[in-house]
Amino acid sequence: MQRFRRMRTLQTFAAVHSSVHNDFNQERHLYSRDNFKLNRAAALAEWRQLGAA
Question: Mind giving me the DSSP string for the chain?
Answer without folding.
Answer: -TT-SSHHHHHHHHHHHHHHHHHH---GGGS-HHHHHHHHHHHHHHHHHHHH-
